[in-house]
Design a protein that fits this description.
alpha/beta, Metallo-beta-lactamase, Chain A, six-stranded mixed beta sheet, 5 helices, 14 strands
Length: 194
């Protein structure tokens, strides 16, 4: 059974997710935006070793703790290569990563499907694991990511949202900011998915 621990970190209250199988000793972290010391303390309290960091996109509020976590754990860091086109003023300097995404990943005993969902940024991805979607800043409860920053594209995010809407099955949605939701709720009530 999948276990998900959510830390809302920094001034932007970016959701950082620690994800692992029940009773596992290794985990992945999704979008560690800030406060590496708090994340490490949480890992220690949970008795988990960090296997990899998965980034939904490269904005500074989602990647700010990456280098400090890698320095402490020597973990892998996954990023979509299209994020390398983002201006460094929005990524807090050169983006740090060790690997680029393919369409699927197996890490820490977990299987992820990688869905490229451009629009908020060129290389935004949603990460699907079991019946959960980690949507970054593509999809929020009742809303979607902004497209007015460099690399943003309203037409692209609209297509990405419709691709998410048309997924077969029901999923819990864990966004980059704000409360969790479900794909069923967003299909019904989110105006950007109509």
């Amino acid at each position: 059974m999948l276990k998900i621990h959510t830390l809302a970190l920094g001034n932007y209250q970016t959701n950082c997710y620690i994800v692992h199988e029940e009773n596992a000793k290794t985990c992945v972290i999704i979008d560690p935006g800030y406060q590496a010391e708090d994340i490490l303390r949480e890992l220690q309290g949970l008795g988990l070793t960090l296997d990899a960091i998965l980034l939904t996109h490269g904005h500074f509020d989602h990647v700010g703790a990456v280098k400090a976590l890698v320095a402490e754990t020597d973990c892998r860091v996954y990023l979509h290569p299209d994020e390398l086109s983002l201006p460094e003023m929005f990524t807090a300097g050169p983006l740090f990563y060790t690997d680029t995404y393919s369409t699927a990943l197996s890490l820490a005993g977990l299987s992820f499907r990688i869905m490229h969902t451009p629009g908020h940024t060129p290389g935004s991805v949603c990460l699907l694991c079991e019946k959960h979607i980690f949507s970054g800043d593509t999809l929020f409860a009742g809303s979607c990511g902004r497209t007015d920053l460099p690399g943003g594209d309203w037409t692209a995010i609209r297509k990405s949202l419709l691709k998410l809407r048309d997924l077969v099955g029901e999923f819990a949605v864990h966004p980059g900011h704000g409360e969790a939701t479900t794909l069923a709720m967003e299909r019904q009530y989110n105006p950007y998915m109509q």
